[in-house]
Write a structure and sequence with these properties.
By secondary structure, this protein is mainly α. It has two domains: 64 residues, Arc Repressor Mutant, subunit A, CATH 1.10.10.10; 52 residues. Helix content is 62%, strand content 6%. The protein is built from five helices and two strands, in the order αααββαα. Helix 1 crosses helix 3 and helix 2 packs across helix 3. The protein is globular and about 55 Å long. The two termini are 31 Å apart. The mean pLDDT is 87.
Amino acid sequence: MEQFIISPSSGVPIYKQLFSQIERMVLNNYFSVGEQLPSVRQVATSLEVNPMTVSKAYGLLEERGYLTRLRGKGMVVAMRDDAVSQQEKLELLNTMIAQLFSQAQQMGIDEQEIITLVKASITESTLKTKESKE
């Protein structure tokens, strides 16, 4: 599906890439509660991956409570507690921030430079958002 983007050469297993994207999409209400996800076959065909790869991602999402399987309908977004969802968003963001700091340190970029870059990015994003609303 066009909403999923995978990078086979990234070093991250494809099922994890798919899992992470769908997880973020559910947490950010891109997919709403009760919304049916594309079938395993549809996703596998459009991404040109093995259906078992998609099935593994969907299975993990079901285990974690993001999706639920409805007989005859496939996978749909599960009902979730808003407080839990907010906590999960923050945990996911903290993980992403930790990865950013780790990768930046590996490149020899110090904390102050990272903070400066993040602030500049926030400012740029805010300006773009304001411009798009006008």
